[in-house]
Amino acid sequence: MDVIRVKGGRRLTGEVQVAGAKNAALPILFSTLLTDQRCVVGNLPQVQDVRTALRLLSDLGAEVEEDGSTVAITAGEITSSEAPYELVKTMRASFLVLGPLLARLGHARVSQPGGCAIGGRPVNLHLHALQQLGAELDLVHGYTEARADRLRGAEVQLDFPSVGATEHLMMVASLAHGETVIENAAREPEIVDLAAALRSMGADIEGAGEAIVRVRGASQLGGMNHQVLPDRIEAGTFLIAAAMTRGEVVVRGARSGDLHALLVKLREAGAELEERDDAIVARAARRLAGVDIKTLPYPGFPTDLQAQMMALATVSQGTSVITETVFENRFMHANEFLRFGADISLDGHNAVVRGVEQLSGAPVMATDLRASVSLILVGLVADNTTEVRRVYHLDRGYERIEEKLAALGASIERVKGARG
Ligand code: EPZ
């Protein structure tokens, strides 16, 4: 397994281009199953999860033509309606093929995803919503088996504004008979992007990005033509890295509207942020102040930037209280931060972080995607060398991040095949 080796102490300066958003790309790619027409999706990030999604689509019978960050997918004839355990266990978002397969074929058999490092990750909201649209579901030997002669629109109230359940519903409702109203829908920018992709296929969707989304089903959908939006989490990660290293970085592609909660907190901490049409510039001339963070569904502070903000908090002036309300076990990175000499005390959903002047580089272990990048952020400011192991977590969602950070002046390298 590869190891990422970082030598701390360098200020980040320069310009970095943000890739397409992984968390929009995945549901958008699975939406191509809703039509037998040719779909073109651009600005895809070159990350492991996208490669996994394309492999699954191909296994289901779709034709996949890749050209750099653009892919053409034609699910003209779906030859399988099954997403196997071996694949779903590597990427739980694969579960989202259940609805499109059901809408297209009338049946589907998809391995029910298990938990992951950050929590139990149940899919009860997805399943209950699909049943309300007329799906008959059974759980047999770990697989969700779904059948539906004709899906019909319904009024669905989500108990929690689940991103995945909202995406699942929007995709299925686009081919259901009649109108579906999704109440308490997730409002993330990735939801808005998925709706735009579905509308390019002829879907009739209103209100994406708001708490109530209306979908009027069509009898069939045409081909998609869509450019995936920039990844706000990657963008936010670079803004935090610039602030932590007291550098100056132009994050090209970052969209202020998608990152409002982060910008407010970074400014409160003392960073200087300049919002341009096609970029955000982050500067910090001195050590930042600790700030309190509480993660919430969008537009609240994003849980996917919690670990990165905790990394910043470990070297900020004063104390930060970080509360994680979205996932039940998303503080694993805190235990690894202690190895650097960070001062953190955990109590259930709360982490109290007392900033220290200097951290000491150490060998550490990645546990999940966002935790792995936060370990690199600490390595950028810790003294001596930090080695991050199990970087396959990192490669799932970040495109060549060590190259991007090196181009900004970081002393960072990937040691291939090192003892992980
Ligand atoms: C998406 O996961 C993202 N993944 C996550 O990013 C992100 O952290 C999360 O949304 C929240 O923003 C993708 O888009 C591929 P949820 P998702 O359904 O859809 C509970 C990353 O690092 N819940 O909004 O799974 C659930 O357990 C990943 O890129 C149920 O109880 O998130 C969690 O506590 C990590 N039942 C909360 O809701 C359900 O049926 C939020 O989950 C569904 C969810």
Topology:
Blueprint: E1 3-7, E2 13-17, H1 22-31, E3 38-42, H2 48-59, E4 63-67, E5 70-74, E6 82-83, H3 85-88, H4 98-105, E7 107-111, H5 124-132, E8 136-140, E9 143-147, E10 155-157, H6 163-173, E11 179-183, H7 189-200, E12 204-206, E13 212-216, E14 225-227, H8 232-244, E15 248-252, H9 260-269, E16 272-275, E17 279-283, E18 293-294, H10 306-314, E19 319-323, H11 332-338, E20 343-347, E21 350-354, E22 363-365, H12 369-381, E23 385-389, H13 392-395, H14 401-407, E24 411-415
Parallel strand pairs: 2-15, 3-14, 6-7, 10-11, 18-19, 22-23
Antiparallel strand pairs: 1-23, 1-24, 3-5, 4-5, 7-9, 8-9, 11-13, 12-13, 15-17, 16-17, 19-21, 20-21
Helix pairs in contact: 1-2, 1-7, 4-6, 5-6, 6-7, 8-10, 8-12, 10-12, 11-12
Query: Largest beta sheet: what is the strand line-up?
Result: 22-23-1-24
Model regions low in confidence, pLDDT < 50 over at least 5 residues:
none
Number of helices: 14
* Radius of gyration over C-alpha positions, nearest whole angstrom: 21 Å
Q: How does the major sheet shape up?
A: 4 strands, mixed
How far apart are the termini?
5 Å
Q: In what range is the share of β-strand residues?
A: 25-35%
Helix percent reads 25-40%
Structural class: alpha/beta
Extended strand count: 24
| Bound chemical compounds | ligand EPZ
| Shape call | elongated
> Taking all residues together, what is the mean pLDDT?
96
Describe this structure in words.
The chain is built from 14 helices and 24 strands. The chain has helices at 22-31, 48-59, 85-88, 98-105, 124-132, 163-173, 189-200, 232-244, 260-269, 306-314, 332-338, 369-381, 392-395, 401-407, and strands spanning 3-7, 13-17, 38-42, 63-67, 70-74, 82-83, 107-111, 136-140, 143-147, 155-157, 179-183, 204-206, 212-216, 225-227, 248-252, 272-275, 279-283, 293-294, 319-323, 343-347, 350-354, 363-365, 385-389, 411-415. The chain is elongated. The strands form 6 sheets. Strands 22-23-1-24 form a 4-stranded mixed sheet, with helices on one face. A 4-stranded mixed sheet has the order 2-15-17-16. It has a 4-stranded mixed sheet with strand order 4-5-3-14. It has 420 residues and is an alpha/beta fold. Bound molecules: ligand EPZ. Residues 23, 26, 93, 119-126, 160, 162-165, 186, 303-304, 326-327, 369-370, 397 line the site of ligand EPZ.
